[in-house]
């Protein structure tokens, strides 16, 4: 499938899929969407806990990963981060996105490169307090251990183009993988998605969305 690089509303870039008319991130701003949805309403709830286990569904460009690492640098939290991705981007695409230019230090720029260079399906210490496992697999085929994750970043392509990623069966699998009190956060605010999350046991909140979106969704186990 063809993938092109476009510039979003906050000046950061993302990948566009012309065949689906779908972007990896919000056209209003890739970085501000990631920080609002996944950090402010996800990571910040747990930051400071001694151990945080995160699953990202849709590792994609690695943007959420490096922003999570940046946000946690000055915390006491040890983070275990699993990034699930069926179709990894190429090194050329990673370079063209220029995300390293958005980072505040040479340390983070190097860590972003290290994140992309790390092997698939093997744990890698990115820092002493941040362990990454990139999982090269489709969500539908991935098995999870129950009560594993504190937080799930659900960053799959939208239901319009990937309906099979937004089913009750998928949400039940993710609900089971969360620890009690764990959160799932997503940019999507469709009514059917919220109803399906509730149907498998989530307590669902409609929260203010990032710029360009009225709402986002958070579910708690």
Describe, in plain words, how this protein is organized in 3D:
- The strands form two sheets. The chain has an eight-stranded mixed β-sheet with strand order 6-7-5-4-8-9-11-10. Strands 1-2-3 form a three-stranded antiparallel β-sheet, with helices on one face.
- The longest helix has 17 residues, at 30-46.
- The chain has helices spanning 30-46, 63-72, 91-97, 106-117, 168-177, 191-199; strands at 4-7, 13-17, 22-23, 51-57, 78-85, 123-127, 130-136, 149-154, 178-186, 203-208, 215-220.
- α1 (30-46) crosses α2 (63-72) and α2 (63-72) packs across α4 (106-117).
- It has a single domain (29-220), classed as 3-Layer(aba) Sandwich (Rossmann fold), CATH 3.40.50.150.
- The protein has six helices and eleven strands.
- The protein is α/β, with parallel strands linked by helices and 221 residues long.
């Amino acid at each position: 499938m063809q993938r092109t690089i476009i510039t979003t509303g906050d000046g950061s870039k993302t990948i566009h899929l012309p065949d689906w008319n779908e972007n990896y991130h919000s056209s209003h701003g890739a970085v501000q969407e990631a920080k609002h949805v996944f950090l402010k309403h996800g990571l910040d709830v747990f930051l400071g806990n001694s151990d945080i286990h995160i699953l990202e569904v849709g590792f994609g460009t690695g943007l959420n990963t490096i922003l999570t690492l940046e946000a946690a640098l000055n915390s006491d939290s040890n983070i275990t981060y699993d990034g699930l991705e069926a179709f990894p981007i190429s090194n050329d695409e990673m370079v063209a996105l220029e995300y390293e230019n958005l980072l505040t230090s040479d340390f983070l720029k190097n860590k972003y490169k290290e994140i992309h260079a790390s092997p698939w399906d093997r744990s890698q210490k990115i820092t002493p307090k941040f362990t990454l496992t990139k999982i090269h697999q489709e969500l539908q085929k991935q098995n999870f251990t129950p009560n594993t994750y504190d937080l799930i970043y659900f960053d799959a392509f939208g239901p319009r183009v990937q309906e099979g990623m937004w089913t009750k069966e998928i949400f039940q699998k993710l609900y089971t993988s969360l620890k009690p009190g764990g959160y799932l956060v997503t940019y999507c605010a469709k009514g059917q998605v919220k109803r399906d999350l509730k149907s498998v046991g989530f307590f669902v909140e409609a929260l203010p969305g990032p710029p360009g979106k009225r709402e986002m969704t958070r579910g708690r186990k």
